[in-house]
Design brief:
The chain is of the alpha+beta class and 290 residues long. The protein has a domain of 196 residues. It is built from nine helices and 17 strands. It has an eight-stranded antiparallel beta sheet, with no helix packed on it. A four-stranded antiparallel beta sheet has the order 6-13-10-11, with no helix packed on it. A three-stranded antiparallel beta sheet has the order 1-17-15, with no helix packed on it. The mean pLDDT is 85.
């Protein structure tokens, strides 16, 4: 199915949503939101959060604190202790974030479905052919964070993060209308490729946080830089961060998407399917040999 056919599937509201969130100066709006969200003036903060709660899906019942310094502080809020249970099964990769599951399943060679009729290649996403080969016929899941969700993400297993590759790009929206309309969307947006190995068997697991409009910045706990569209530091950032399952890895400045890749020998856990909801620590993938 080509892009024209994909566009024809969209309804009138989806088309309007797409135009309003993509046919605009995306990077300029993202810079503005980065500035506006950090305003600490109480009236601006309180009115913005009240409007967000009224018209969005913002739920603060499990937040660590009840008052926030700014809208940005609310975006990047921490959870209260015990708000998420981390699956302890060593054969399971836990979800790194709260999300709505998008396209998921088996990687077809090195081709990955973005949406029905649209695909991208791992070479294009990773910008690394050798890394792409490690996930040939592997398993993947697309995890979309909505604006009101908890925006921090966590280690899916006990692992060692070995390298982060920052790939600059655009800031298209990553909501369903855009995913169904824009070819190779995730390969066009700014992203970070986080390469890790499972502790014990050393199998590779890669997470790709993808930035989007209003959210073109990613903070990682184990890399002392803020990755965003104006970042001019080294493309490849070596590191050796030992993380335990469920330990915080970093956060988005707003909502976006995380792509999770596991090699052959992993499958999706029961109940993980497009449109399902998942939370940090819940079962996402499992090893077949356990």
């Amino acid at each position: 199915m080509n892009t024209r056919t994909a566009r024809q599937r969209l309804g009138a509201l989806d088309r309007l949503n797409f135009v309003l969130t993509n046919r605009v100066p995306r990077l300029l709006l993202t810079r503005f939101m980065g500035w506006f969200s950090q305003i600490r003036q109480p009236l601006v903060r309180d009115l913005s959060i009240a409007l967000w709660r009224r018209f969005g899906d913002l739920d603060l019942t499990d937040a660590k604190k009840a008052r926030f310094d700014s809208v940005h502080d609310c975006f990047t809020r921490e959870l209260r202790d015990g708000a998420r249970a981390i699956d302890a099964d060593p054969a399971v990769l836990a979800s790194p974030c709260d999300a709505i599951v998008g396209a998921c399943g088996k990687v077809a060679g090195t081709d990955v479905f973005q949406a029905k009729g649209l695909a991208y290649t791992l070479d294009d996403l990773f910008c690394d052919a050798a890394l792409a080969r490690q996930y040939r016929n592997g398993c993947y899941a697309t995890l979309r964070l909505t604006a009101g969700m908890y925006h921090r993400f966590h280690a899916p297993h006990d692992c060692t993060v070995e390298q982060v590759t920052h790939i600059p790009g655009d800031a298209f929206n990553v909501n369903p209308p855009a995913v169904a309309w824009i070819e190779r969307l995730y390969c066009r947006n700014e992203r970070a490729v986080i390469r890790s190995r499972l502790r014990g068997d050393r199998r590779a697991i890669t997470l790709v946080p993808v930035a989007a409009i209003l959210v073109a910045s990613i903070r990682l706990r184990f890399v002392d830089v803020l990755l965003h569209h104006r970042y001019r530091g080294p493309r490849e950032i070596p590191c050796e961060a030992e993380l335990t399952k469920g330990q915080e890895m970093g956060w988005f400045q707003h909502g976006s998407t995380i792509l999770v890749f596991a090699p052959r020998g992993f499958v999706l856990c029961e109940g993980v399917a497009p449109g399902s909801r998942i939370r940090v620590g819940e079962r996402l993938m499992r090893r077949l040999d356990d």
